[in-house]
Design goal:
By secondary structure, the protein is an alpha/beta fold. Helices cover about 45% and strands about 20% of the residues. Strands 2-1-3-4-5 form a five-stranded parallel β-sheet, with helices on both faces. A four-stranded antiparallel β-sheet has the order 6-7-8-9. The protein has a three-stranded antiparallel β-sheet with strand order 10-12-11. Strand 7 and strand 8 form a beta hairpin. It is globular. It starts with 6 loop residues before the first strand and ends with a strand.
């Protein structure tokens, strides 16, 4: 039996970019549907029961951030923003609205494909694996029932705050979280303007969990935006 192809909705008003993405992604085993406007894209994502959206922000009828919010009202499907807007403020706005990843134009096909794979892999993880079971990536494993953390066979002791930070990253594994999102979930809404907390604890986590904290494999930085846990 032939495996079903993952369905991707490309919401992009530039025809040459749509043609390139359709051809390239079809070659790599994806079923592609296209939309030239935000409203059309939201409808396509719904009726096609898509697995992932690739979204431009500069659409003719509505801003891409509004598309993210519209989709998030009914679906958690991964959304990768592909935009010429490179300012950190635009990235943060899109991610805060619910986008999973952000890639700036011009982009490399290899990197886009890698990010698609990560997003789809994260979306396929059963909720019980991260809510009531054991989360694993590489040599890192976290027993979420008994609150125990291991790097290979070695158990790692974490403070309560370090553990809470790690579980927030696990909850959104594979997804970039902004500084504000992490601060709100770990320390509460009154701490969203205190990013120094986050820098200190991320550094502590890396020293405990990474073989080389200066070149982390799991706890990755999205420069100027936030952090994400690689899966």
């Amino acid at each position: 039996m032939t495996a079903l192809k993952p369905k991707i909705i490309v919401i992009e008003d530039d025809p040459p970019i749509r043609r390139f993405l359709r051809t390239a992604l079809d070659t790599h085993g994806f079923e592609i549907f296209e939309a030239a406007t935000g409203k059309q894209g939201v409808v396509e994502a719904n009726i096609r029961k898509a697995d992932l959206i690739i979204l431009d922000l500069g659409l003719p009828d509505m801003d891409g951030v509004s598309v993210v919010k519209a989709v998030r009202a009914w679906s958690e499907m991964p959304i990768i923003v592909l935009s010429a807007r490179s300012a950190e403020a635009h990235k943060i706005e899109a991610l805060d609205a619910g986008a999973d990843d952000y890639l700036t134009k011009p982009f490399g096909l290899g990197e886009l494909l890698a990010r698609i794979r990560v997003a789809l892999r994260h979306a396929s993880i059963p909720p019980e694996q991260t809510e009531a079971g054991v989360f694993m990536t590489g040599n890192l494993s976290v027993d979420l029932i008994n609150r125990r953390v291991y790097n290979g066979d070695q158990e790692i002791h974490l403070t309560p705050i370090q553990y809470r930070l790690l579980t927030v990253l696990i909850k959104h594994a594979g997804k970039i979280l902004t500084h504000r999102q992490i601060l709100k979930e770990v320390w509460g809404p009154n701490s969203i303007e205190s990013p120094h907390y986050l820098r200190i604890y991320m550094s502590q986590l890396r020293h405990k969990l990474e073989t080389d904290p200066a070149q982390p494999k799991y706890l990755l930085t999205e420069s100027g935006v936030g952090y994400w846990l690689k899966v």
